[in-house]
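hey so u asked for the seq, here:
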Amino acid sequence: MSAILLALVASVAASPSAPVPDGPPAGLTNVRLVVRALSGSLGDAVRATGAGPSWVGYSVPSIRHGHMCCFDSIRESRLQSRGCCRLEGRKAGVSVQSDGRDEHALPAALGSSSRAIDAARAVVMLRVEKGGIGRVGAHSSDCGLDAGGLPLIWLTGVPPTQSLAVLEPLVAEEEDALMVIAAHADPGADAMLERQAAPGRSRNVREQAAFWLGESRGQRGYEILRRLLREDTDARYREHVVFALSESDVPAATDAIIEAARRDPDEEVRGQALFWLAQKAGQKAAAAITRAIEEDPETEVKKKAVFALSELPDGEGVPLLIGLARENRNPAVREQAFFWLGQSEDPRALDFIAAVLKR
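ran it, C-alpha coordinates below
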Protein backbone atom coordinates (compact mmCIF):
# COMPACT_ATOMS: atom_id res chain seq x y z
CA MET A 1 0.00 0.00 0.00
CA SER A 2 2.84 2.39 0.86
CA ALA A 3 4.40 1.83 -2.55
CA ILE A 4 1.15 2.72 -4.24
CA LEU A 5 0.78 5.87 -2.13
CA LEU A 6 4.35 6.93 -2.95
CA ALA A 7 3.66 6.32 -6.62
CA LEU A 8 0.53 8.43 -6.45
CA VAL A 9 2.45 11.25 -4.75
CA ALA A 10 5.06 11.06 -7.49
CA SER A 11 2.33 11.15 -10.09
CA VAL A 12 0.80 14.32 -8.65
CA ALA A 13 4.21 15.97 -8.28
CA ALA A 14 5.12 15.23 -11.87
CA SER A 15 1.85 16.46 -13.35
CA PRO A 16 1.82 19.81 -15.15
CA SER A 17 0.54 22.77 -13.17
CA ALA A 18 -2.34 23.37 -15.56
CA PRO A 19 -4.49 20.90 -17.45
CA VAL A 20 -3.21 19.99 -20.91
CA PRO A 21 -5.70 18.89 -23.62
CA ASP A 22 -3.64 15.79 -24.35
CA GLY A 23 -2.23 15.41 -20.86
CA PRO A 24 -2.18 12.17 -18.84
CA PRO A 25 -5.50 10.56 -17.89
CA ALA A 26 -6.79 10.99 -14.37
CA GLY A 27 -7.09 7.25 -13.64
CA LEU A 28 -3.36 6.44 -13.43
CA THR A 29 -2.27 4.46 -10.37
CA ASN A 30 0.89 2.72 -9.17
CA VAL A 31 3.04 4.75 -11.54
CA ARG A 32 6.15 6.94 -11.60
CA LEU A 33 4.98 9.64 -13.96
CA VAL A 34 7.04 12.08 -16.02
CA VAL A 35 5.23 14.47 -18.38
CA ARG A 36 7.05 16.15 -21.24
CA ALA A 37 6.26 17.63 -24.63
CA LEU A 38 7.41 15.62 -27.61
CA SER A 39 10.46 17.18 -29.26
CA GLY A 40 11.69 15.41 -32.36
CA SER A 41 10.16 12.13 -33.46
CA LEU A 42 8.13 9.66 -31.42
CA GLY A 43 10.48 6.88 -32.51
CA ASP A 44 13.46 8.76 -31.08
CA ALA A 45 11.59 9.37 -27.82
CA VAL A 46 10.86 5.65 -27.50
CA ARG A 47 14.47 4.68 -28.17
CA ALA A 48 15.69 7.17 -25.55
CA THR A 49 13.78 5.61 -22.64
CA GLY A 50 16.72 3.49 -21.41
CA ALA A 51 17.35 -0.18 -20.82
CA GLY A 52 14.87 -0.89 -18.05
CA PRO A 53 11.16 -1.59 -18.64
CA SER A 54 8.92 1.45 -18.75
CA TRP A 55 5.75 2.74 -20.37
CA VAL A 56 5.41 5.53 -22.92
CA GLY A 57 1.95 7.04 -23.18
CA TYR A 58 0.20 9.73 -25.18
CA SER A 59 -3.24 10.45 -26.60
CA VAL A 60 -4.54 10.89 -30.14
CA PRO A 61 -7.91 11.86 -31.63
CA SER A 62 -10.05 8.72 -31.61
CA ILE A 63 -12.53 7.36 -34.13
CA ARG A 64 -14.34 5.48 -31.36
CA HIS A 65 -17.43 6.77 -29.59
CA GLY A 66 -17.64 4.10 -26.90
CA HIS A 67 -15.62 2.91 -23.94
CA MET A 68 -12.20 1.28 -24.32
CA CYS A 69 -10.96 -0.54 -21.24
CA CYS A 70 -9.94 -3.98 -19.96
CA PHE A 71 -11.58 -6.44 -17.63
CA ASP A 72 -10.49 -9.74 -16.14
CA SER A 73 -13.62 -11.48 -17.43
CA ILE A 74 -16.85 -10.92 -19.32
CA ARG A 75 -18.68 -11.04 -15.97
CA GLU A 76 -16.52 -8.21 -14.59
CA SER A 77 -17.21 -6.10 -17.68
CA ARG A 78 -20.94 -6.39 -16.96
CA LEU A 79 -20.52 -5.37 -13.33
CA GLN A 80 -18.05 -2.50 -13.75
CA SER A 81 -18.61 0.45 -16.01
CA ARG A 82 -15.12 1.94 -15.77
CA GLY A 83 -12.70 -0.96 -15.48
CA CYS A 84 -9.05 -0.90 -14.49
CA CYS A 85 -6.33 -2.21 -16.78
CA ARG A 86 -3.41 -3.79 -14.97
CA LEU A 87 -0.73 -3.07 -17.52
CA GLU A 88 1.79 -5.37 -15.86
CA GLY A 89 1.29 -9.07 -15.15
CA ARG A 90 -1.32 -11.29 -16.74
CA LYS A 91 -3.24 -9.89 -19.66
CA ALA A 92 -6.88 -9.13 -19.07
CA GLY A 93 -9.60 -10.36 -21.39
CA VAL A 94 -12.16 -7.87 -22.59
CA SER A 95 -15.75 -7.51 -23.67
CA VAL A 96 -16.91 -5.41 -26.60
CA GLN A 97 -20.31 -4.00 -25.78
CA SER A 98 -22.88 -2.15 -27.85
CA ASP A 99 -26.21 -0.89 -26.53
CA GLY A 100 -25.58 -2.79 -23.32
CA ARG A 101 -25.05 -6.18 -25.02
CA ASP A 102 -21.86 -8.24 -24.92
CA GLU A 103 -20.99 -9.01 -28.53
CA HIS A 104 -17.45 -10.31 -28.80
CA ALA A 105 -14.61 -11.48 -26.63
CA LEU A 106 -11.45 -10.18 -28.26
CA PRO A 107 -7.77 -10.76 -27.50
CA ALA A 108 -7.16 -7.02 -27.29
CA ALA A 109 -7.42 -4.58 -24.42
CA LEU A 110 -10.48 -2.92 -25.85
CA GLY A 111 -14.15 -2.70 -24.97
CA SER A 112 -16.87 -0.35 -26.05
CA SER A 113 -20.26 0.53 -24.66
CA SER A 114 -23.04 3.00 -25.23
CA ARG A 115 -22.19 4.96 -22.06
CA ALA A 116 -22.12 8.69 -22.67
CA ILE A 117 -18.43 9.56 -22.17
CA ASP A 118 -15.82 11.83 -23.72
CA ALA A 119 -14.27 9.52 -26.28
CA ALA A 120 -12.67 12.23 -28.40
CA ARG A 121 -9.19 10.93 -27.61
CA ALA A 122 -7.68 7.48 -27.18
CA VAL A 123 -4.89 6.84 -24.68
CA VAL A 124 -2.09 4.88 -26.38
CA MET A 125 0.31 2.94 -24.15
CA LEU A 126 3.61 1.43 -25.34
CA ARG A 127 5.66 -0.89 -23.12
CA VAL A 128 9.31 -0.22 -23.85
CA GLU A 129 12.43 -2.12 -22.82
CA LYS A 130 15.96 -1.64 -24.19
CA GLY A 131 14.60 0.88 -26.65
CA GLY A 132 12.16 -1.57 -28.25
CA ILE A 133 8.37 -1.75 -28.00
CA GLY A 134 7.03 -5.01 -26.58
CA ARG A 135 3.31 -4.41 -26.04
CA VAL A 136 0.74 -1.79 -27.01
CA GLY A 137 -2.79 -0.87 -25.97
CA ALA A 138 -5.46 1.77 -26.50
CA HIS A 139 -7.85 2.93 -23.78
CA SER A 140 -10.48 5.56 -23.09
CA SER A 141 -9.34 8.56 -21.10
CA ASP A 142 -11.53 7.53 -18.15
CA CYS A 143 -10.21 3.95 -17.98
CA GLY A 144 -8.16 3.19 -14.87
CA LEU A 145 -4.57 2.26 -15.69
CA ASP A 146 -2.30 0.48 -13.18
CA ALA A 147 1.29 0.67 -14.42
CA GLY A 148 2.65 -1.88 -11.94
CA GLY A 149 5.08 0.60 -10.36
CA LEU A 150 6.99 1.19 -13.61
CA PRO A 151 7.96 4.61 -14.95
CA LEU A 152 5.51 6.20 -17.38
CA ILE A 153 6.78 8.88 -19.73
CA TRP A 154 3.72 10.79 -20.87
CA LEU A 155 4.25 12.72 -24.10
CA THR A 156 2.12 15.65 -25.18
CA GLY A 157 1.87 16.91 -28.73
CA VAL A 158 2.22 13.52 -30.49
CA PRO A 159 0.95 13.79 -34.10
CA PRO A 160 -1.30 10.86 -35.15
CA THR A 161 0.88 10.31 -38.22
CA GLN A 162 3.93 9.67 -36.02
CA SER A 163 1.90 7.36 -33.80
CA LEU A 164 0.78 5.32 -36.79
CA ALA A 165 4.33 5.17 -38.17
CA VAL A 166 5.58 3.68 -34.90
CA LEU A 167 2.71 1.19 -34.66
CA GLU A 168 2.64 -0.33 -38.16
CA PRO A 169 6.01 -2.15 -37.90
CA LEU A 170 4.69 -3.90 -34.76
CA VAL A 171 1.74 -5.58 -36.49
CA ALA A 172 3.48 -8.86 -37.33
CA GLU A 173 4.55 -9.48 -33.71
CA GLU A 174 1.96 -7.65 -31.59
CA GLU A 175 -1.66 -8.40 -32.45
CA ASP A 176 -3.03 -5.48 -30.44
CA ALA A 177 -1.23 -3.06 -32.77
CA LEU A 178 -4.03 -3.37 -35.32
CA MET A 179 -6.64 -2.51 -32.73
CA VAL A 180 -4.66 0.57 -31.66
CA ILE A 181 -4.22 1.64 -35.29
CA ALA A 182 -7.97 1.25 -35.83
CA ALA A 183 -8.70 3.61 -32.92
CA HIS A 184 -6.96 6.54 -34.64
CA ALA A 185 -9.21 9.18 -36.23
CA ASP A 186 -6.78 9.65 -39.09
CA PRO A 187 -7.18 8.55 -42.73
CA GLY A 188 -3.70 7.03 -42.54
CA ALA A 189 -5.20 4.29 -40.35
CA ASP A 190 -7.49 3.25 -43.22
CA ALA A 191 -4.52 2.92 -45.56
CA MET A 192 -2.56 0.88 -43.00
CA LEU A 193 -5.42 -1.52 -42.37
CA GLU A 194 -5.92 -1.90 -46.13
CA ARG A 195 -2.25 -2.83 -46.51
CA GLN A 196 -2.44 -5.37 -43.70
CA ALA A 197 -5.59 -6.93 -45.19
CA ALA A 198 -3.95 -7.41 -48.59
CA PRO A 199 -2.61 -10.73 -49.92
CA GLY A 200 0.92 -11.51 -48.81
CA ARG A 201 0.36 -10.94 -45.07
CA SER A 202 -0.18 -13.79 -42.64
CA ARG A 203 -3.73 -15.16 -42.38
CA ASN A 204 -4.03 -13.97 -38.76
CA VAL A 205 -2.98 -10.40 -39.61
CA ARG A 206 -5.26 -10.28 -42.66
CA GLU A 207 -8.26 -11.47 -40.68
CA GLN A 208 -7.70 -9.03 -37.84
CA ALA A 209 -7.24 -6.15 -40.28
CA ALA A 210 -10.50 -7.09 -42.01
CA PHE A 211 -12.31 -7.20 -38.66
CA TRP A 212 -11.20 -3.70 -37.68
CA LEU A 213 -12.02 -2.34 -41.14
CA GLY A 214 -15.60 -3.51 -40.63
CA GLU A 215 -15.94 -2.80 -36.95
CA SER A 216 -14.54 0.73 -36.79
CA ARG A 217 -13.66 2.33 -40.12
CA GLY A 218 -17.09 3.23 -41.46
CA GLN A 219 -17.61 3.92 -45.16
CA ARG A 220 -13.94 3.58 -46.15
CA GLY A 221 -13.65 0.26 -44.31
CA TYR A 222 -16.80 -1.00 -46.05
CA GLU A 223 -15.42 -0.06 -49.47
CA ILE A 224 -12.16 -1.93 -48.84
CA LEU A 225 -14.00 -5.03 -47.60
CA ARG A 226 -16.43 -5.01 -50.53
CA ARG A 227 -13.48 -4.97 -52.94
CA LEU A 228 -11.76 -7.81 -51.07
CA LEU A 229 -14.96 -9.86 -51.16
CA ARG A 230 -15.19 -9.47 -54.92
CA GLU A 231 -11.51 -9.85 -55.81
CA ASP A 232 -9.66 -11.98 -53.27
CA THR A 233 -8.97 -15.50 -54.54
CA ASP A 234 -8.76 -17.12 -51.07
CA ALA A 235 -12.22 -18.49 -50.30
CA ARG A 236 -11.46 -19.04 -46.63
CA TYR A 237 -10.41 -15.41 -46.31
CA ARG A 238 -13.58 -14.27 -48.08
CA GLU A 239 -15.55 -16.10 -45.39
CA HIS A 240 -13.88 -13.86 -42.81
CA VAL A 241 -14.51 -10.76 -44.93
CA VAL A 242 -18.22 -11.60 -44.85
CA PHE A 243 -18.03 -11.71 -41.05
CA ALA A 244 -16.19 -8.36 -41.00
CA LEU A 245 -18.90 -6.82 -43.17
CA SER A 246 -21.50 -8.06 -40.69
CA GLU A 247 -19.77 -5.85 -38.09
CA SER A 248 -20.03 -2.71 -40.21
CA ASP A 249 -22.59 -0.02 -39.40
CA VAL A 250 -22.73 1.04 -43.06
CA PRO A 251 -26.20 0.04 -44.41
CA ALA A 252 -24.79 -1.05 -47.77
CA ALA A 253 -22.75 -3.76 -46.01
CA THR A 254 -25.90 -5.89 -45.84
CA ASP A 255 -26.25 -5.66 -49.61
CA ALA A 256 -22.65 -6.81 -50.03
CA ILE A 257 -23.35 -9.85 -47.84
CA ILE A 258 -26.51 -10.61 -49.85
CA GLU A 259 -24.45 -10.42 -53.04
CA ALA A 260 -21.97 -12.92 -51.58
CA ALA A 261 -24.82 -15.24 -50.58
CA ARG A 262 -26.09 -15.22 -54.15
CA ARG A 263 -22.99 -15.09 -56.31
CA ASP A 264 -19.80 -16.14 -54.52
CA PRO A 265 -18.34 -19.13 -56.40
CA ASP A 266 -17.55 -21.00 -53.15
CA GLU A 267 -20.42 -22.75 -51.37
CA GLU A 268 -18.81 -22.28 -47.93
CA VAL A 269 -18.65 -18.53 -48.46
CA ARG A 270 -22.29 -18.48 -49.56
CA GLY A 271 -23.22 -20.46 -46.47
CA GLN A 272 -21.34 -18.09 -44.16
CA ALA A 273 -23.00 -15.13 -45.82
CA LEU A 274 -26.42 -16.65 -45.12
CA PHE A 275 -25.48 -17.22 -41.48
CA TRP A 276 -24.38 -13.61 -40.92
CA LEU A 277 -27.42 -12.32 -42.75
CA ALA A 278 -29.54 -14.16 -40.20
CA GLN A 279 -27.64 -12.44 -37.40
CA LYS A 280 -28.32 -9.04 -38.96
CA ALA A 281 -31.97 -10.02 -39.67
CA GLY A 282 -34.45 -7.71 -41.32
CA GLN A 283 -36.71 -8.23 -44.33
CA LYS A 284 -33.85 -8.08 -46.84
CA ALA A 285 -31.99 -10.81 -44.95
CA ALA A 286 -34.98 -13.13 -44.81
CA ALA A 287 -35.65 -12.63 -48.52
CA ALA A 288 -32.04 -13.41 -49.43
CA ILE A 289 -32.01 -16.54 -47.27
CA THR A 290 -35.27 -17.80 -48.79
CA ARG A 291 -33.97 -17.12 -52.28
CA ALA A 292 -30.86 -19.19 -51.55
CA ILE A 293 -33.06 -22.13 -50.56
CA GLU A 294 -34.88 -21.91 -53.85
CA GLU A 295 -32.03 -21.10 -56.22
CA ASP A 296 -28.64 -22.21 -54.89
CA PRO A 297 -27.49 -25.33 -56.79
CA GLU A 298 -25.75 -26.92 -53.76
CA THR A 299 -27.85 -28.87 -51.25
CA GLU A 300 -25.36 -28.06 -48.46
CA VAL A 301 -25.90 -24.34 -49.02
CA LYS A 302 -29.68 -24.88 -48.97
CA LYS A 303 -29.33 -26.67 -45.62
CA LYS A 304 -27.26 -23.82 -44.21
CA ALA A 305 -29.91 -21.39 -45.40
CA VAL A 306 -32.57 -23.35 -43.51
CA PHE A 307 -30.43 -23.10 -40.38
CA ALA A 308 -30.04 -19.35 -41.02
CA LEU A 309 -33.84 -19.00 -40.97
CA SER A 310 -33.87 -20.64 -37.55
CA GLU A 311 -31.43 -17.94 -36.36
CA LEU A 312 -33.68 -15.01 -37.23
CA PRO A 313 -34.63 -13.14 -34.03
CA ASP A 314 -38.02 -13.10 -32.33
CA GLY A 315 -39.24 -16.22 -34.13
CA GLU A 316 -39.32 -14.45 -37.51
CA GLY A 317 -38.11 -17.57 -39.27
CA VAL A 318 -40.71 -19.97 -37.84
CA PRO A 319 -43.46 -19.32 -40.44
CA LEU A 320 -40.87 -19.64 -43.21
CA LEU A 321 -39.62 -22.94 -41.77
CA ILE A 322 -43.18 -24.25 -41.53
CA GLY A 323 -43.71 -23.34 -45.17
CA LEU A 324 -40.55 -25.21 -46.16
CA ALA A 325 -41.52 -28.28 -44.13
CA ARG A 326 -44.92 -28.34 -45.83
CA GLU A 327 -44.11 -27.54 -49.42
CA ASN A 328 -40.46 -27.64 -50.39
CA ARG A 329 -39.72 -30.30 -52.99
CA ASN A 330 -36.20 -31.02 -51.75
CA PRO A 331 -36.35 -33.75 -49.08
CA ALA A 332 -33.11 -32.53 -47.47
CA VAL A 333 -34.60 -29.05 -47.08
CA ARG A 334 -37.81 -30.42 -45.59
CA GLU A 335 -35.83 -32.58 -43.17
CA GLN A 336 -33.74 -29.61 -42.03
CA ALA A 337 -36.85 -27.46 -41.63
CA PHE A 338 -38.50 -30.07 -39.38
CA PHE A 339 -35.29 -30.42 -37.36
CA TRP A 340 -34.92 -26.71 -36.64
CA LEU A 341 -38.64 -26.32 -35.93
CA GLY A 342 -38.22 -29.04 -33.31
CA GLN A 343 -35.33 -27.12 -31.76
CA SER A 344 -37.15 -23.80 -31.65
CA GLU A 345 -39.58 -24.40 -28.75
CA ASP A 346 -41.88 -21.93 -30.49
CA PRO A 347 -45.58 -22.76 -29.90
CA ARG A 348 -46.34 -22.38 -33.61
CA ALA A 349 -43.65 -24.91 -34.46
CA LEU A 350 -44.86 -27.35 -31.84
CA ASP A 351 -48.47 -27.04 -33.06
CA PHE A 352 -47.38 -27.72 -36.64
CA ILE A 353 -45.30 -30.78 -35.70
CA ALA A 354 -48.14 -32.14 -33.57
CA ALA A 355 -50.58 -31.72 -36.44
CA VAL A 356 -48.26 -33.60 -38.79
CA LEU A 357 -47.85 -36.44 -36.31
CA LYS A 358 -51.65 -36.82 -35.95
CA ARG A 359 -52.21 -37.38 -39.68
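The longest strand covers residues 121-129. The chain is about 50% helix and 15% strand.
lmk if thats what u needed
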